[in-house]
Amino acid sequence: MLSTSSCYYDNAEQLYGSGAACDSVATWSIDIQPLIQSQCLGCHQGAGASGGLDLSAHTGVQNSVLNGSMLDRINRSAGDPLAMPPGGPISECSKAKVRVWKRAGALPN
Ligand code: HEC
After folding, report:
1. For 5-54, what is each residue's pLDDT tens digit?
2. N or C terminus of the chain: which is more exposed, having fewer CB within 10 Å?
3. Residue 25 C-alpha to ligand 1 middle, in angstroms?
């Protein structure tokens, strides 16, 4: 398993969240929804959602996580034209949260 040492380099994203270790527990309401809201909804919302991907509700996020496309995009390195978000990667802690949440079924918890 990967370590979580990179969590030490986190920025403001860590100001919210459960405070639990990045790779131990993640919930929709505490971890995932705030992350999506602050990092993704500027482009992925409503009728004109980028790439036709609307992440404004749990079901849209769940689909994207379970089909693998979200992790594929957020794990790409900066400079990759397919990396998400385009402005620069989210923290390693946030990536770990998405993985943990996926593993537990990406529930609306
Ligand atoms: C500045 C605008 C912008 C932001 C912010 C942004 N995206 Fe995107 N995203 C796009 C555009 C434009 C596309 C379509 C082009 C492409 O596929 O790369 C896209 C495509 C995608 C796709 C592929 C489409 C699909 O159907 O699978 C995924 C997954 C994705 N984004 C996830 C995210 C996630 C997760 C975040 C937040 C962490 C995010 N994006 C933030 C603009 C953005």
Report:
1. 444 444 444 454 555 689 999 999 999 999 999 999 999 999 999 999 99
2. N
3. 25
